[in-house]
Amino acid sequence: MPDYIGAVDQGTTSTRFIIFDRAGKIVACAQQEHEQIYPKPGWVEHNPDEISKRTREVVAGAMAQAHLQPSDLAAIGITNQRETTILWNRKTGRPVYNALVWQDTRVGDLVAEFSQSGGPDRFREKTGLPLSTYFSGLKLLWLLRSVPHAREQAEAGDLLFGTIDTFVLWQLTGGPDGGLHITDCTNASRTQLMNLKTLDWDPELLSAFGIPRQILPKICSSSQIYGVAALDAVKGVPIAGILGDQQAALVGQTCFQQGEAKNTYGTGCFLLMNIGTEVVQSKFGLVTTVAFKFNDQPANYALEGSVAIAGALVQWIRDNFGLISKSPEIETLAKTVEDSGGIYFVPAFSGLYAPYWKHNARGVIAGLSRYTNKGHLARAVLEATAFQTREMVEAMEKDSGVPLNVLRTDGGMVENELLMQFQADILDRPVVRPAVKETTALGAAYAAGLAVGFFSDLNDLRSRWSVDRTWTPRMEAPRREELYRFWKKAVTRSFDWVEPTDAKDKSKGA
Prior knowledge:
Largest sheet: 7 strands, mixed
Distance between the termini: 52 Å
Number of strands: 23
Helix content: 25-40%
Mean pLDDT: 93
Low-confidence stretches: 502-510
Shape: globular
């Protein structure tokens, strides 16, 4: 058996290929960013050809960095930004349009259109999801309606649909020359086209959304051998694991038991709790999703709270305003003040996700005064993520009936110690950072490794999880509740900013 396992981590802002040894230690990592495209307010796109190119580059780069041959890898797992939607030509591999990113809000008018019959929870019983700009089904419908000839080509069988995992797998296994058109059930559960109980595309949903079944990938488990890589650097290596990024982090944090949960602080912020093998519908603004399915074992489900903007807010401050030159500098700037100076930043750039689901909300900064300086703004940027996390934790505890006594964390922002301490303070419970912080890529590697016997079983994986650092609450209760009360007040100021006529006007000419 080879000594290493690889993971493609195709995220919202960059693509990485990470190679792990048997102990879960990183032996090589290559990373490339890709362009964020904003054609109109609320529109967010990626270039699929650029993502394909970056994937090839990082795979070759990491293999060269570690001086490895394909025979040194036991398998490759794939994890990806979820909901991002691509439609491409099966013969040429060329996309018919840029990828519509999960943050994109252009389908707001379609949300309103579909909600007219049955309301926003019209499809929740089957999919676990409310109607929202977030999920892939309406994005795909927009492409079929808006791209010239897309509908005819799709119905003729000339086009393929996929979330990013499907597109990356298709490219890695040969593209137009025999590429595999497959997704796993975690990513399929984010399209709003899959039935949570059957784990298959639902005919009623496809009919309601007007989606031709022939363009959809085959739905597989999260851990099985799908095929082998055709790319020279990893030619012949089995591709054996696929997990949406947040489910991959859940697996990387070894949350295999009912009631175990993690929170990922990345571009967005995502809290997932394993709820076992039965579907539980949320009553408090969360969504129900597939957590993972290993080979022929029953699927595990999760309750999820999703925040659209977390680390992306730091990038926005950096790129749009030049307040900092590098993202880690936000902590240094925030430490120049003792608190946020009474200001609150509600980053509803793409509307509000859990627990509000208001696609017509928009970002606000509340509480500004002459006293406010850039340090206060930096602090409010970080605190926004912690406040949003508390809202999700409260909803999850109500839905599950299980108290979260400790919050397991991962993602790029967990290096920010000011944020982690404030998170513990505003939650009034310990916050834990694991020893291995790349839990998303690690989860994909775990799924692939289980499929090929590189890892023996779930107990083998559990034994590898350990704590790096724990933050405990320091804030007095009255202060904590005052801050949270004003945060909730600020959130209400973001509601209903985009009016229906505005959304219709902006959708013209698409």
